[in-house]
Amino acid sequence: MVIKEIFTPDIAITWLPWAVQYFFLMGLAYASVWVATIHLCSAKQTDARLLKLCACLMLTAGIVAPIALLADLHQPLRAWHFYAQIRPYSWMWYGAFLLPIFSGTSLVFAWLLLRPYLPQAHSSLTSSAEEADWLSRIGQWLRFGNWSSDKWLKPIALIATLSACSIALYTGMETMAIKARPLWHTYWLPPLMATSALLAACGTLAVLNRILHGYQASTQDRLLQWVRASFGLFALCLIGWALFDNGSAHEAALLLDTSPSWQLAAIWVLVTLALLALVLAVRRLPSVLMLVVSLTAVHLAWGFRWIVLIQAQTDPKYGAGTYFYQLPWGPEGLLGIAGTFGLWLALMVLVSEFIRHQPRSAQQTL
Amino acid sequence: MDKSKRQFLGKMASVSVGAALIPVVQVQAQQAQTAATGKRYGMVIDLRRCVGCQACTVACTFENLPPLGQFRTTVQQYEVSQQDAATPPAFLMLPRLCNHCENPPCIPICPTGATFQRPDGIVVVNNEWCVGCGYCVQACPYDARFINHETNTADKCTFCAHRLEAGLLPACVETCVGEARVIGDLNDPHSHISQLLKANQADIKVLKPDANTGPRVFYIGMNSAFEDRINGQAPVRTLLTDTGEEIHHGH
């Protein structure tokens, strides 16, 4: 029997590119908390530059991500409705509580990490011109006094890491819980999301180390190890999904058979993975190549989220073939993507301004 | 703190708590309004009677006024041909709408409780409480839900609950020229729908029976090839933008 669809509607996507931005930026935030905590707890001599970059990333991405999430709600002003009843069967409802907890803990963790770099009220190293600077005055105020906060760092790091794990779990499970979308309904999805988030965060940290003033070669070497490890984990999860998953991988194979856009996506993923594997196998990377690798890793993680969250919505639940999606230019499309990245960039600039004044040593200046 | 300040803060706290609870009470009130009729609504669609005229699609649109390009019900049309060239192709008209499932996957995942099932089985959305997260749209295995471009909230077929409450038939049922759509009380063994289901017991099918959703829209005369996702050729599809502009692509 041959069935031809003659007259069927095309179903528009429901989760817009804002969702990709949310999952991507939140991934950067929670993975940078992981990197900072693991480094803080495991390294014999802490890398101040790495911790500072992690703090900047968790702070800025952690602020922009919830904004992107609110934008993906079609009624953002009703967000308080999440808190007015108990919905224990909805992962999204749990997320409504876990997200502000993470925002709070990661904010405190980032503040503790950056606090030593905020300008002191009566620092002998601060010039009189800088004292008059309003940014400097706000920076001084943000220190909340000159007391030592070192003893709080590890306890808060552990709390923030637990909170980061809860975000990784809920964002993965929220998507995985949708049985109606076979592509999403796989236990491989949460680890794929988490490992790709780690890859993106390590790549972004390496880019930030390169472009922000105060580049440290030792930090870049350490980040290269992180990129290698997270890439390996992501590739292993991807191989595990392809080999051992029945529903989701089977659906992907069906799409590959019929859809040119899915074939293109698969070629892109495989080529990017192969190139990264090849370059990461080289023992020492020139700094320019390291920058290219980092950007490629970031683009792989973002593209992975695009495929999972946007392209998967073009896979019909009942109909044949695939649905049609055209990226709009406006806020619900390209402008939204550019806007969230622009906001993140602006926050990065602002944060780097606050902590430029008085580092522990001139070497560590951002 | 003096006494008047304490009293003022106390009153403010009660007002705040009260304001926060208003919507909860509203949601519960809406559920209570339709309590205990003892009915369980369902629909039978006899595909042998459907001619694909789309009168139901038009009537639903007139009744419920969804935005341009969005529909609560449609009639999907398929050409079915056999492998041998001698048999001419046949056409199948498949009316689609919310299945008002017994185990609706759209309800438990709703993070605000805006979508709920009435005691008479009809699944509805309180669009004054819906945040438009689209989670229910993703969870529906039948693509029966959508985010209404005008209200920015989840929208779907309600079996025209407002008409049923007024003693009228849903717009799609009333307008169907072939009387292919029959709505009624599944709990009443003497209702027309129960009789139809009994008489055609061997030929009753639902969409995606393995999804464990318990659909309460039943089809008579449907080939089992249409029960699950269509394994066939897709048409050239089009999408309408919010402004009515048509965008399309070929496969």
TrEMBL record, chain A:
Keywords: Cell membrane, Membrane, Transmembrane, Transmembrane helix. It is a multi-pass membrane protein. It is found in: Cell membrane. Its main location: membrane. The chain crosses the membrane at residues 20-38, 50-71, 91-114, 152-172, 192-211, 223-244, 264-282, 289-313, 333-351. InterPro entries: Electron_transfer_protein, NrfD-like. Belongs to the NrfD family. This is Polysulfide reductase. The gene is nrfD-3.
From TrEMBL, chain B:
The keyword Oxidoreductase does not apply. Keywords: 4Fe-4S, Iron, Iron-sulfur, Metal-binding. Residues 41-70, 89-120, 121-150 form the 4Fe-4S ferredoxin-type domain. GO terms for molecular function: 4 iron, 4 sulfur cluster binding; metal ion binding. InterPro entries: 4Fe4S_Fe-S-bd, 4Fe4S_Fe_S_CS, DsrO-like, ET_IronSulfur_Cluster-Binding, TAT_signal. NCBIfam families: DsrO (NF045797). This is 4Fe-4S dicluster domain-containing protein. It comes from Shewanella decolorationis.
